[in-house]
Amino acid sequence: MAKIYLFFGPQGSGKSTQAEKLSVYLGVPYFNTGDQLRALSQSNTPQGVAVAESMKKGELVDDGTMRSLFSSFVENNDVSRGFVADGFPRKSSQLELLESLAQEYGWEVSGIFIDIKDETVEERLSHRLIIMNGEQVRREDDQPDILKKRLAAYRHDTVPIINWLKSQGELVMIDGEPGIDVVFNEVIQAINGQH
Ligand code: AMP
Q: Tell me: the pLDDT tens digits for 167-193?
């Protein structure tokens, strides 16, 4: 059965690093909404402008855009052995979409929650840099006031999804405080323990 791994965690938890590593390790496609949306926000189309606007404010991007991003990921990648998702689903409507496709395709869903303390979020994001157009820059939405809104959206929209997966026995918790390799080791052990 195709297995899909959904990564969750607050901003700065390192979930993208871990999710990407896991997709390479398993040799399955990687669905990263943040990077795809950042690319889309650079396009000079009505959709690109709307996405840029939501991201700049630290708000979640509209359901229609997310539905089409996810559908095109599923259509354009070989997901027959599963995939790793990072940043999706982030709210109940996205979870419903995912669950209906999981039923249709026979995917087994597994959530991985990377847990870090609030102080670590602040500490890590105060000096996080990303590469944009070949240059190291600070993410506009990592500025403190926008970050506050992103964390509020995370608590309001995403935490209920995490709790729901937990109640279904479909979530493993990983301590995200140690270094990348230690955390990755824990991720591997956790997913192997589930088989
Ligand atoms: P991230 O890089 O995962 O922190 O995502 C950056 C921004 O992209 C978020 O603050 C949202 O504006 C948007 N975003 C990422 N994933 C989603 C999603 N699943 N649904 C709606 N908006 C999203």
A: 999 999 999 999 999 999 999 999 998
Sign of CA dihedral 128, 52, 10, 133: negative
16 token code pair: 């993208």
88 CA: nearest ligand 1 atom:
19
In short, whether 69's Cβ falls inside 6 Å of ligand 1 is no
Reported as half-sphere exposure (CB side, CA atoms, 13 A), residue 150 has a value of: 24
Query: Does pTM top 0.90 for this prediction?
Result: yes
Cβ of 58 below 6 Å from ligand 1: yes
Please give, one letter per residue, the 3-state secondary structure of 96-112: HHHHHHHHHHCCEEEEE
DSSP 140: G
Which atom of ligand 1 is nearest to 94's Cα?
19
What tokens were used for 61? 């991007």
| CA of 11, closest atom in ligand 1 | 4
